């Protein structure tokens, strides 16, 4: 699920506020439905605090970033280009708009090399520690590619 760019210092629109809450409720519902009823609220806030610190450090564009919040492809469906289409549907639009993209990968291998193929670059580790249980996420940023350059290369070929 991709989240739209939110300019720094600008209040959320009602639509974005509603979508944030809908996403939160959907995540709780999914966790309960699939047996993760013991969702640790304290860990959630540890992660959100760590995430906010990383964002203030690596998010340099005041217009915001397209944020790949979560993406999964069932193992039996992997290798069919589904993940590629889920990523490029937004990165292509981001290129047209000249907007950067951001994600937090849950594993360095194989995720970082996969996202590097789409132009993402590793920028920082996000460590969340709750009483000795550590979760590490790998923050990646993708700067927009010039669609004008891409079009001129296509026309020259």
UniProtKB/TrEMBL annotation:
Xref: PROSITE patterns: GNAT
CDD domains from the UniProt entry: NAT_SF
Residue span(s) of domain N-acetyltransferase: 1-138
GO MF entries: acyltransferase activity, transferring groups other than amino-acyl groups
Top-level taxon: Eukaryota
A Pfam family recorded for this sequence: Acetyltransf_7
PANTHER family: ACETYLTRANSFERASE, GNAT FAMILY FAMILY (AFU_ORTHOLOGUE AFUA_4G09540)-RELATED (PTHR42791:SF4), GNAT FAMILY ACETYLTRANSFERASE (PTHR42791)
The name this protein goes by in its record: N-acetyltransferase domain-containing protein
């Amino acid at each position: 699920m991709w989240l739209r760019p939110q300019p720094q210092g600008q209040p959320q629109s009602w639509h974005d506020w509603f979508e944030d809450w809908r996403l939160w409720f959907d995540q709780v519902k999914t966790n309960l439905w699939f047996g993760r009823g013991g969702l640790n609220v304290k860990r959630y806030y540890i992660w959100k605090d760590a995430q906010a610190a990383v964002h203030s450090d690596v998010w340099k564009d005041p217009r915001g970033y397209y944020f790949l919040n979560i993406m999964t492809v069932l193992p039996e469906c992997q290798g069919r280009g589904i993940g590629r289409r889920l990523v490029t549907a937004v990165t292509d639009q981001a290129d047209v708009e000249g907007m950067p993209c951001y994600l937090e990968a849950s594993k360095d291998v194989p995720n970082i090399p996969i996202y590097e193929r789409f132009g993402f670059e590793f920028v920082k580790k996000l460590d969340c520690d709750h009483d000795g249980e550590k979760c590490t996420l790998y923050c990646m940023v993708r700067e927009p590619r010039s669609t004008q350059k891409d079009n001129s290369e296509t026309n020259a070929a």
